[in-house]
Design brief:
315 residues, 7 helices, nine-stranded mixed sheet, Double-stranded beta-helix, 32% strand, alpha+beta
């Protein structure tokens, strides 16, 4: 067990926290020593713990509510982003709503050019059974893959391509443009201008107002905190609110069944559960750690998420 003192500079409140290992990898459970709000956690200290652990489960902070969760996200981040298919419940938080089936491992927005640095979760009401969020450290996955699999994924990037409806791309562009103009007034050329700043991205306007994009990216790339290769992607991920993407290697060849089977086997061995309690919050390095969900067995479970960007050197 280690103890660190964190200070929220904006309020002058000092919150001592204790960290203990969570799960079988480097994840950490972070708890207050003598009380304190989520909003009182020092952002710099939090980023330092995240760089070390890959994911953090914050438990026992009082108050631990939507306001304190939102304040922590905003204090730690340079900006926030979103899933355009979800509704907002605070300035940064959206309700997690992806049906009741199990959700495969993925990084948030990882199959698009707008992947966030950090994925945040706030548990307002924990499930009475099952329904856990899953996490899988891409560092551990890369190390556990066979030499042949690592060679295949290191040799060339992968490409995600799919159609996105007009309402959804407009919602995303509205947020990325700082909400400076109504979504319905945004022209597709403005989205193309945003995408032109992102290497490996091609967007084509469709006649019905939607767009079709192709995004080329490593299956195992570097992270926001360092150069170590991490297998963190959305190859196994869901498409609950969207058309299922086509995923190939950069040369157009398909990922073989054998290769996908190895990825599924290795990630299954390394995947861990976040066992939620009311008021918990989780912070996940979205460039390193994939997450998913066990099947929902308690529909009253209520969890919100936020997506944000942080300073690359702010470890």
């Amino acid at each position: 067990m280690s103890t660190a003192v964190s200070t929220a500079a904006s309020t002058g409140v000092s919150t001592a926290v204790k960290t203990t290992p969570y799960g079988t990898g480097s994840g950490l459970l972070v708890e207050p020593v003598e009380g304190g709000s989520l909003a009182d956690i020092d952002p710099k200290a939090l980023r330092g713990l995240l760089a070390e652990a890959g994911f953090l489960l914050l438990r026992g902070f009082t108050p631990s509510d939507m306001d304190s969760f939102t304040a922590l996200v905003q204090a730690t981040s340079t900006s926030t982003t979103l899933d355009p298919a979800r509704d907002f419940y605070s300035e940064v938080a959206q309700k997690v709503d992806a049906g009741f089936a199990e959700v495969g491992l993925h990084t948030e927005n990882g199959n698009s050019p707008f992947r966030a640095h950090v994925a945040w979760f706030f548990c307002e009401k924990a499930a009475s059974s099952g329904s856990q969020t899953t996490v899988c450290d891409g560092y551990r996955v890369w190390d556990a893959l066979s030499d042949g699999a690592r060679e295949a994924f290191a040799a060339q990037d992968i490409v995600y391509s799919r159609y996105v409806g007009e309402q959804q791309w407009r919602a995303m562009a509205h947020h990325l443009l700082g909400k400076t103009k109504p979504a319905e007034d945004i022209k597709v050329e403005e989205l193309l201008a945003l995408a032109s700043q992102l290497p490996g991205t091609e967007i084509q306007a469709e006649a019905d107002g939607g767009i079709r994009y192709a995004f080329c990216t490593p299956a195992a790339g570097t992270t926001i905190f360092g150069e170590r290769r991490s297998f963190a992607n959305s190859i196994l991920g869901p498409s609950f609110n969207y058309e299922k993407p086509t995923i190939t290697f950069a040369d157009g060849t398909e990922l073989s069944e054998q290769l996908l089977a190895e990825v599924e086997s290795v990630t299954a061995r390394i995947t861990e559960n976040l066992e939620w309690q009311d008021g918990d919050a989780a912070v996940i390095d979205n460039t390193r750690v994939m997450h998913g969900r066990r099947a929902i067995t308690d529909p009253n479970r209520t969890i919100y998420n936020a997506l944000s960007y942080i300073e690359a050197t702010a470890a």
